[in-house]
Write a structure and sequence with these properties.
- The protein has about 260 residues and is an alpha/beta fold.
- It has one domain: Spore Coat Polysaccharide Biosynthesis Protein SpsA, Chain A, CATH 3.90.550.10.
- It is built from 10 helices and 9 strands.
- It has helices spanning about 20-30, 50-55, 70-80, 95-105, 140-145, 160-165, 175-185, 205-210, 210-225, 230-264, and strands spanning about 5-15, 35-40, 60, 85, 90-95, 115-120, 125-130, 155, 190-200.
- Strands 1, 2, 3, 4, 5, 6, 7, 8 and 9 form a 9-stranded mixed β-sheet that branches.
- The longest helix is centred in the C-terminal third of the chain and has 33 residues, at about 230-264.
- The chain is globular.
Amino acid sequence: MNSYPKISIVTVSLNSAQYIEDNIRSVLMQNYPNVEHIIIDAGSNDGTIDILKKYPHLIWISEPDKGQSEGLNKGFKRASGDIIGWINSDDCLVENSLYRVADFFIRNPDEIAVVGDQIIIDEFNNEIDIIRSQPYTFKYLVDKSKGITQNSIFFRSFVFQKIGYLDENLHYSMDYDFFIRVASIKMIPYMPVPLAKFRLHVGSKTYRGTYYFSKERIKIRRRYKGRIFDIAGRTDLYIIVSEPLRRIRFIRNFIRKLKNLIRV
């Protein structure tokens, strides 16, 4: 065990009974000999706690918090690993990811982080797409990035001493802000293999909150003096400006469906 760097996986959850066991098992099935899995639950009442109790290796608490950022910071502050991974409750690790990550850091002792590709899965674990990543420089993240493969980024724990923890005033794009700060220390190299799976489903925060993600991302770019009208900024501005039209379209579709039901 001592020959492998310790890796801490941090997961936050709230009423995640539908997917949390897939998350836990994806870490267990790595068969990595030096890993701790920390789960910070925000007070679930849907059976999540019963699932957590089934796995004695977990480090977990369940208590109300002020949001995802605060929960993650609680987990990060409990982590004792040399390397940190952040995997949300409905996401999973790809097989052998932890060995690949450990090997990267062993071979590259001067690197502080690494990013890999991300597989998109649906609610039934079907693979529907793959998101190719790239090296993350500070300039790329601030000016050009339309999104990051957050659960495929692993970083050394000492970065918290250099840049602090997540900004708890951010509720959607806290990962974007955090990894901009990581990249401000040093570029995040790219490992061209999938490291994690991102689950896209109607109950997910990403699915429901595109508008709010974009608003925070613009705020973050201004914080780091990014170009608001560069490619990523234009994309977020379009999402914000077109939001009322999407709402109208939703209302129209709802009325159409309601009329069809009345006819039946």
